[in-house]
Design a protein that fits this description.
Elements lengths: L4 E6 L7 E7 L6 E9 L4 H5 L7 E5 L2 E2 L5 H11 L4 E7 L4 H9 L26 E5 L7 H7 L32 E9 L7 E6 L9 E6 L4 H5 L7 E5 L2 E2 L5 H9 L6 E9 L9
Antiparallel strand pairs: 1-6, 2-3, 3-4, 4-5, 4-6, 7-9, 8-13, 9-10, 11-12, 11-13
Length: 281
Amino acid sequence: SEMTKTVEISGEGGPLGIHVVPYFSSLSGRMLGLFIRGIEENSRSRRDGLFHENECIVKINHVDLTDKTFAQAQDIFRQAMKFQSVILEVLPPYNREQYEKSAIAPLCFPDNEEGVPKTKIPPPVHPKPALKTINLSGASSLEAGMQATLQQAKSPNLPHLGRKLSSPSLSPLMGFGNKKNAKKIKIDLKKGPEGLGFTVVTRDSSVHGPGPIFVKNILPKGAAIKDGRLQSGDRILEVNGWDITGRTQEELVAMLRSTKQGETVCLIVARQEEGFLPREL
């Protein structure tokens, strides 16, 4: 609370006019809240001086957004705006580094005698299985905000969060990624003016959390087709050293879009050999 400021607003004053993206810790990769990447010129927020660019909303009506998915955080915000009074904890840019360090501290101390870490990440809530495809072709309007919030994955020494065993819900893909049928391939893509040049697809499972994420299409322009190694059907395992098992498609896309033009993205993908490809999801 010493690092944040409290902003109290009315839920009845109309749209706030802010654009938010996920706020990931640059130190641990944890989702910590919502990053304000833009404020509309004639909006209520600009007029009343409620928020500023590059601030982060970390609590909404005393609900901590740490480890929530982007969809959950947005839903909490929408529900809160139905009330007359909404209390937000807002993190100024100059306190961000200190706040991220404090968010790592609970990882280091056991919360019981057996020494089980405190990180209990709630499973993402998805209303129903849905096919989602996101285009990563060119420069996106999200990039400006993502560059400020998603500078993690720079160091190979960072911890890999979110590793877990394959879920039973993935029965159509059983065997995908095992040593007999699949091989791991490391692919470095340098982001140019046409972007990374591929789309991804997944199928969310409401029971077991996010499913695996695959390359859907290689676009006619971009880094992927120039490099020539990435293929449709490749399962994405790691991005810049970060294990994406259990990550949502939105989180993966945010990591990829945070890459600036001229920077290189390191992908580890699993490719099924012997002509096997996962069925259409």
